[in-house]
Write a structure and sequence with these properties.
- It is a single chain.
- This protein is about 15% helix and about 45% strand.
- The protein has about 250 residues and is mainly beta.
- It is elongated, with a radius of gyration of 21 Å.
């Protein structure tokens, strides 16, 4: 039995309204820094490719390679100074979980599984720990490397399909199930500026969504009361615009 839709109850409608406000805020955050900094500072436009993972009621805490799926994204970054950057980003990816990958017989025999498409709009602050020092002797370009710590806020929309045996069909959908979430991205990364106009990086970021319904399973799940997580990990490349004051 498949479940892939949710009722339009007042709680979900209110949540969707809040999500739309956050999306509008995201696009304003995307445009405003460009207007403020494009003439005097440096901005970047880039892309991301990598993998997505999920932890929740249908996945153990360990990484399951069979459930590691493709993710991608685009981003716009503003340099506030040599150490701080602000990034507006859109990520999307597929996640899934399957009882057959569980570690106990009960879960393996239960036979539940889900898949979902994640769409995330995020505003993220980045701390470039060593600084982005691209100007060397005689004010010529020099390569720059730094590790990164980041954190931010995000709005996430999921499109989840849950599949259970017919004997469990009356358990779903659960009351309170939803598909829009507020998320907190946190993570680590690296950045290597190898040319005047191009930067290459890597990142891994975890998202806490403060909800147990990313997989459509909460009260009836093994991890009832524990919030679901998802993560993105991969490589990014960006093109730089603006002034670095090279000779």
């Amino acid at each position: 039995m498949h479940f892939s839709s949710r009722e339009n109850n007042p709680i979900n409608l209110s949540m969707n309204k809040s999500i739309n406000i956050l999306k509008l805020s995201f696009f304003l955050a995307l445009l405003l820094p460009n207007l403020l900094f494009a003439q005097s500072g440096t901005t970047e436009l880039g892309g991301f490719i990598g993998f997505a993972q999920y932890q929740g009621d249908l996945a153990e805490d360990h990484i399951e390679l069979a459930e590691t799926l493709i993710s991608s994204g685009i981003f716009f970054r503003v340099h506030l100074n040599d150490y701080l950057t602000l990034k507006a980003a859109y990520y999307n990816g597929s996640i899934s979980g399957d009882d057959k990958n569980g570690t106990n017989d009960f879960q393996k025999n239960r036979g539940w599984r889900f898949s979902s498409k994640i769409n995330e709009f995020a505003l993220i602050g980045e701390w470039n720990i060593l600084g982005i020092n691209r100007i060397g002797k005689w004010r010529k370009f020099k390569p720059s490397f730094t590790p990164i710590l980041f954190a931010g806020i995000a709005t996430t929309k999921s499109n989840t399909t849950l599949t259970v045996p017919d004997i469990d069909a009356d358990l779903f959908p659960e009351p309170g199930d939803k598909d829009s979430f507020f998320a907190i991205p946190i993570g680590i990364g690296v950045r290597y500026d190898f040319s005047k106009y191009t930067s290459l990086g890597g990142e891994i970021g975890w998202r806490s969504i403060f909800s147990d319904y990313l997989d459509d399973v909460s009260n009836n799940g093994e991890g009832s009361g524990k919030n679901d997580w998802y993560s993105f990990a991969g490589l990014n490349i960006s093109i730089l615009f603006g002034q670095w004051f090279y000779d």
